[in-house]
Amino acid sequence: MNEQQFISSDFSILSQPLSVGWQSPSNIALIKYWGKTGIQIPKNASLSFTLSQCATDTSIVFSPLSKPTRSVDFVLIFDKKKNTDFRPKMIDFFERISDYCPYLRHYHLEICSSNSFPHSSGIASSASAMSALALCIMELEQHQQPAMSELYFKQKASFLARLGSGSACRSIEGPLVGWGTHPRITNSSDLYGVVHSDSVHPIFASYRDTVLLVDRGQKEVSSTLGHNLMNGHPFSEQRFLQAQDNLAELVTALAEGDVNTFVRIVELEALTLHAMMMTSDPSFVLMKPNTLHIIQAVRVYRKETGIPLCFTLDAGANVHLLYPNENAEKVMDWIENEWASYCQNHQYIHDRVGNGAKKM
Ligand code: DP6
């Protein structure tokens, strides 16, 4: 697939309003995407677990207009209130996808969206938000072109989501999604995410992810700025090669059920991501003291119990704890007893690996 194939040229505008809705989950990268060219072409391949509880619900009513507008005509209702904060980001998104979805200018869009996780919890919501939006748009496209294949629907949804936010392209399906060209991910592409379809040991199919909300504050540095700082970063070329190697090693570990290698690579990826931030110019630190406390305690806990609990981090202070389902009871007790007090307002979210977006 190349970009040209995602240009919709043969469409007929609906005569009646169409109402659609999708629930799309967040995802947590095991191999991190950090560094891009242009509009979200990744510098290295990434691989993520799709989550299930942390999700965005989006519904759109597409009402046909008598004549097309110059730019997409929309109103956004977020958490039941009219929202203008996200408007610039949405205008950018509609601009970026306009060549691929020219029909959008023939409708008025009433977009209603809400997140299942606490607002401004520090959890990346752009992945779930952009993927839910892309899926709603694809459902309109499908109504206009009923012969569309399911494969095309999903690929283009992921392609559009990527233009909104890179990591969003990994939220359409699950449980493991690869994005970026890599020899170990079948049919991988820089343009959209693909389900990692090779054999994966059952232990990873039901993995748990508890997100400890260490810091609910606004991120000091946006992901986009952080990605840009990888251009001209003294260690970036080596980092991109390392990510490709780590992904290959992780894929083997996933197939073999090798949890020790999984733990080693996942933690290495999280710390490398933050090492890149700490060594860019200007440098920045997104971890908080409690992030480090938790990281150290995870390593002690693993040593003492033999339970393969590990951590990973996004571009923020919150810690994702990953562990097999069979250890869930013990780990959840430990979190409740030891770690709730390290989270802002005692908040954490128990999530698990999921299978992707659902139509509402
Ligand atoms: C650290 O997808 O948020 O979460 O493409 O600029 O929107 P943009 O960035 P974004 O970057 C996410 C980076 C990460 C790692 C990852 O999810 O792979």
Give structural notes.
There is one protein chain. The protein is α+β, with helices and mostly antiparallel strands. Helices cover 34% and strands 23% of the residues. Strands 1, 4, 5, 6, 7, 8, 9 and 14 form an eight-stranded mixed β-sheet that branches. A four-stranded antiparallel β-sheet has the order 11-12-10-13. A two-stranded antiparallel sheet has the order 2-3. Helix 2 (126-144) packs across helix 3 (150-164). The site of ligand DP6 has 17 residues, from helix 4.
Characteristic key phrases:
14 strands; binds ligand DP6; 360 residues; alpha+beta; 8 helices; eight-stranded mixed sheet; 2 domains; Alpha-Beta Plaits; Ribosomal Protein S5, domain 2; four-stranded antiparallel sheet; 34% helix
SSE layout and pairings?
Layout: E1 18-31, E2 36-37, E3 41-42, E4 46-64, E5 73-78, E6 81-82, H1 87-97, E7 107-115, H2 126-144, H3 150-164, E8 176-179, E9 193-195, E10 208-212, H4 223-228, H5 236-256, H6 259-278, H7 289-305, E11 310-313, E12 319-323, H8 328-339, E13 348-352, E14 358-359
Parallel strand pairs: 5-7
Antiparallel strand pairs: 1-4, 1-14, 2-3, 4-7, 4-8, 5-6, 8-9, 10-12, 10-13, 11-12
Helix pairs in contact: 2-3, 5-6
The site of ligand DP6 has 17 residues, from helix 4.
